[in-house]
């Protein structure tokens, strides 16, 4: 079976157990992945009843990063719900329930204890702070590789929310220096979601002392051209037209997750 992104992230973490960045990237992949929860019975409206099992260190639900893996584990047709890892973590937070990920069925087989689940829920729920400052000049970026890779991965998931982004070094009129991500032609109302995704890229980079500012501007803004001259460009994918469809499983709407019972 071809490795999944979660397999690759898990292998990197296991290969370098002392590498904080590798561990953080694994949890980022877990949060971003669509996971399939084994259920006791078919969902009833917006309510789901996950199968659970008890270990010495807590109660766990069973989640898999592909439908095939869930089917191979169970060995027969079984009810399930498909949700992102971040939604699952938020639903389990504070309930003393962990996640058994791909148990005994894949290279990324892993146990995420209840404390780690709550930490993940807190991490992805964190909102970026807002501030105002005026840039004096833009410089070529010197951001660590882990942050650049994290930004590339996050912006690749922001399909259709903006056209592009530029990472630059920046100095402000206050004398402060740092890095700035300029997001070009973001659609109205998407700014919060993009800023949160960038904040996650910074958090999961594992660079405790790193900081990154985000600004939104039009392609016609002179600052866009100035950033393009010295910055690292990220092209944000643009979606292809798709036909309307009706979700088949609970959890498709991130603003209306199913209830656990």
Protein described:
By secondary structure, the chain is an alpha+beta fold. The protein has 2 domains: 5-125, no CATH class; 135-235, GMP Synthetase, Chain A, domain 3 (2-Layer Sandwich). 33% of the residues lie in helices and 25% in strands. It contains 8 helices and 13 strands. Strands 1, 3, 4, 5, 6 and 7 form a 6-stranded mixed sheet that branches. The protein is elongated and about 60 Å long. The mean pLDDT is 88.
Question: Which oligomerization state do the chains in this entry correspond to?
Answer: single chain
Output the structural class: alpha+beta
| Fraction of residues in helix | 25-40%
Secondary-structure element pattern, one letter each: HHEEEEHEHEEHEHEEHEHEE
Mean pLDDT level:
88
Which regions contain 5 or more consecutive residues with pLDDT less than 50? none
What's the number of domains? Answer: 2
Number of strands: 13
How big a fraction of the residues is strand? 15-25%
| Amino- and carboxy-terminal Cα gap | 34 Å
Global outline: elongated
Number of helices: 8
Alpha carbon gyration radius: 20 Å
Can you summarize this structure?
The chain has helices at 5-15, 20-32, 67-74, 85-92, 114-125, 145-156, 191-204, 222-230; strands spanning 34-38, 47-48, 52-55, 58-64, 80-84, 97-101, 110-112, 135-139, 164-172, 177-184, 213-217, 232-235, 259-260. By secondary structure, the protein is of the alpha+beta class. Strands 1, 3, 4, 5, 6 and 7 form a six-stranded mixed β-sheet that branches.
């Amino acid at each position: 079976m071809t490795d999944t992104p979660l397999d690759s992230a898990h292998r990197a973490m296991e290969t370098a157990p002392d590498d904080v960045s590798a561990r953080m990237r694994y949890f980022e992949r877990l949060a971003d992945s669509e996971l399939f929860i084994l259920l006791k019975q078919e969902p009833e409206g917006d309510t789901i009843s996950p199968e659970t099992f008890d270990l010495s260190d807590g109660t766990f639900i069973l989640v898999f990063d592909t439908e095939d893996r869930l089917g191979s584990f169970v060995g027969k047709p079984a009810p399930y719900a498909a949700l992102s890892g971040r939604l699952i973590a938020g639903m389990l937070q504070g309930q003393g329930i962990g996640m058994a990920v791909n148990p005994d069925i894949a290279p990324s087989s892993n146990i995420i204890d209840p404390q780690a689940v709550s930490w993940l829920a807190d991490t992805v729920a964190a909102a970026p702070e807002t501030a105002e400052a005026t840039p004096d000049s833009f410089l070529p970026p010197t951001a660590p590789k882990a942050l650049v890779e994290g930004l590339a991965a996050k912006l690749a998931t922001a399909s259709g929310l903006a056209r592009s982004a530029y990472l630059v070094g920046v100095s402000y009129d206050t004398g402060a220096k740092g890095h700035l991500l300029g997001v070009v032609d973001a659609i109205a109302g998407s700014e919060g979601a993009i800023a949160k995704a960038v904040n996650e890229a910074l958090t999961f980079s594992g660079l405790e002392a790193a900081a990154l500012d985000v600004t939104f501007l039009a392609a016609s803004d002179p600052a866009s051209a100035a950033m393009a001259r010295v910055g690292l460009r990220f092209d944000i994918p643009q979606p292809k037209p798709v036909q309307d469809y009706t979700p088949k499983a609970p959890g498709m709407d991130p603003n209306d997750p199913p209830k656990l019972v």
